[in-house]
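Reposting from the mailing list since nobody answered there.

I have sequence plus structure tokens for a pair of proteins and want to know whether others read the tokens the same way I do. The first protein:
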Amino acid sequence: MQIGVSLMEYMTIAVLVTGALWVVARARKTAIAQSDKKPLWVSFGADFFGVLALVLVCRVAVADWQQVPSGSMEPNLRVGDRILVNKLAYGPRLPFTNTAIKLGDPQRGDVVVFRYPGDVSQLYVKRLIGLPGDIVSYHDGNVAINHQPFQLKSVTSIVPRAEDAGHGFFDENAGNRERVIKLNNDEPGASVDPVAWRGEYRNNCTVYSTQDWECTVPQAKYLMMGDNRDNSADSRVWGFLDESQVYGKAVKVIVNFSDFSRFWMPL
């Protein structure tokens, strides 16, 4: 079992410490009341216990918020987006162990927040492409699931930004799920070397070239990819995601302080 230490775990430690101080303060209530000045450990410890505990419970069981640090999910997520993470979609995850109180399973096409397999203290966000048992094929940026290709159609309605230079936008239709993806204009799908498919998961995958491969997703694993297909360190780089590392479902952009037009944008 991997132990992750992120903001959630630091909050848990803070709740435990302030909770212990609160218990001591309750036990010494009479002495503290008779004191001329409230001790600092009461003012800055025990008194914060209720607030911290409430925030922690909300973030563990209901919803959380995370900041997007990279452009791997462009154009749907931009650098600096603060995203709302629905913890009830798949079930709350307990701090440190990420143990799930399971309420549901991730679905193909979900934007999933998860603990990065290479360092479970970091949270990543990618799109779920392949479910356990799926045969996922990739050719020049186009994905197929169980030999049924996603439908791609060029999108011209999006105003490109500086970071979009040399790339095109495409509407990707996967059954009843649609989203816009971003591909390199010159060599679509060729910029991310699928090193994981050639290494640890070579028995699950066949690689013909950087932009041409096929994998069978193992049981209890997911294949994750960024919507910015040519600039995303995803399953192609670090391998399949274990279901135990799922953290929650990203559902909306709360705010981006560099672009307020993105306020409350659905994903």
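The second protein, same order (residues first, tokens after):
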Amino acid sequence: MAVSGTILTSQGPGKEIYYIKGSIDSIINRCKFYYIADDSTPGLDNNTKSLILNKAYATASRGLRVIAMAYGYGCVKEVESSGLQENLVFVGFQAMHDPPRKGVADSIALLQSGGVQVVMITGDSEQTALYIARQLGLRVGRDHERGSVDGSSYCLTGQAIDQMTKAQLKERVGTVSVFARTTPRHKLAIVEAFQSRGAVVAMTGDGGELECMAIFLPVITSACSQRCARAEDG
């Protein structure tokens, strides 16, 4: 998301400033400077960038949503059409705690006990998504910090999906419980991949397309459907 505006001073209108926020990776890669003070914006070297990213990833791994911010000069249309969006000043990032709703973990446990494969599709980072998934009881392995299974093998990002063919995604979704950093386009591809495996797909969500809101996608497998059919037959 980006906006621009002009700051009024005692001498009249100042420069038009472009403000942008988004994921830490997408924002910091557009920045060549970082903010210390109004008169101090040194160059953003690789060491400083690594320090910022490591801190952001560590924050996200505690289940917090990380939003980065930067600014540049010019109006939105001018900046985004001229390539100046790669010449921004990194301001910092904020972390937000947005816990799952009460009762969600119980609902997921009930679905999984009935043979339903439940996955989460979210615009959040991989670190944040895996932390929340563990809280909700999704099948992503236990906490790596406690010396157990690393959940990254259970997570697939939108960037990784972009590098896959339809056949590769069809094969991969069977072992994935969390899809992170996704867009609505990725969501459609994921649903189609499950359907191509013969799964009956149902979704719940908040009704919006905001990437920051997680979407839970229960996937009812053929095996589950067959068990239900046998139960109905008595």
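Reply #1 (J.P.):
I read it the same way you do. Confidence is low (pLDDT under 50) at residues 143-149, 209-215, 220-232.
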